[in-house]
Write a structure and sequence with these properties.
The structure is a single chain. The chain is mostly helical. It has 3 domains: about 60 residues, no CATH class; about 90 residues, no CATH class; about 55 residues, no CATH class. The strands form 3 sheets. Strands 4-5-6 form a 3-stranded antiparallel beta sheet, with no helix packed on it. Strands 1-3 form a two-stranded antiparallel sheet.
């Protein structure tokens, strides 16, 4: 075997191994989501215990929150980094005694991007035509969700036994108030009819027009073209628009004077 051929074989072998290694590292997949940890210039991860000293009131209830199970692999295996998964590495924040909060620690209440790194599907919903103005900076995730408490579907500090609609009632007081004749859907919660993040339909509705109401209000077709809901023929009514826009059940959330929510 000539020296030139040996050199060619060596170069070819190394090149093949490098190509295989590149393909393996770049094209391999995992069955879980992989997210880059939050970064703060010059800061290192210190673990949850370093947060407890100053934030004892938060840490006491945090263990029951799903966020407490989030840990980063960038830190030492002996550290529990669920706090820093959302707030970033805390060493500089601790070194300044908590001063310069906006510079040395990330506050998801003011930077919803910290939430979107994991909740990518929610981020996409906020880009739909009708949405709550979170991306515009007029609202933030913490106003509707408690990131530390045992029930993250409640607003921060919300009561454990609060009604399902408590989060929405903070802003939509008129719709969530008590009615003499309540729309039964309100007992299930606002999200039965509305997607709170965003929707292609107006008013954040999960379905448009009468299709939304017909999900719960069973209809019966007695003859071709005849559509009965209860004992009333709705065949012509459903052709005039939505149940609440056709001049019928306008008080869709509830009424104090009409049991059929007509006004």
């Amino acid at each position: 075997m000539s020296l030139a051929f040996q050199r060619w074989l060596y170069v070819a072998t190394v090149g093949m191994l490098s190509c295989c290694l590149f393909l393996w590292t770049s094209c391999s997949t995992v069955t879980r989501s992989v997210h880059e940890p939050l970064h703060i210039e010059g800061a290192e991860f210190t673990g949850n215990q370093s947060c407890v000293d100053c934030h004892a009131n938060i840490s006491q209830k945090f263990t029951a929150n799903p966020h407490a199970r989030v840990n980063l692999r960038v830190a030492s295996s002996s550290l529990n980094t669920s706090c820093e998964a959302c707030h970033g590495p805390a060493s500089r924040h601790i070194a300044t005694g908590g001063q310069g909060t906006e510079k040395f620690i990330i506050n998801p209440k003011k930077a919803s991007d910290a939430c979107f790194r994991c909740h990518e599907n929610v981020h996409a919903e906020f880009r739909l035509p009708n949405h709550h103005p979170v991306l515009e900076g007029h609202l933030n995730c913490v106003q509707c969700h408690d990131p530390h408490g045992h029930d993250m579907m409640k607003p921060a500090g919300g009561l454990g036994l609060a009604r399902v609609n408590e989060s929405c009632a903070q802003c939509h007081r008129d719709q969530a108030r008590k009615f003499v004749f309540e729309h039964e859907a309100m007992r299930e919660g606002c999200t039965v009819c509305h997607n709170p993040h965003g929707s292609v339909n107006s008013k954040l509705l999960v379905q448009r027009d009468s299709n939304l109401c017909l999900k719960c209000h069973a209809q019966m077709q007695t003859a071709p073209g005849n559509l009965f809901i209860g004992k009333v023929n709705h065949s012509t009514f459903v052709q005039q628009g939505g149940c609440w826009t056709a001049g019928c059940h306008a008080a869709v959330h509830g009424s104090n004077i009409n049991p059929k929510l007509q006004y």
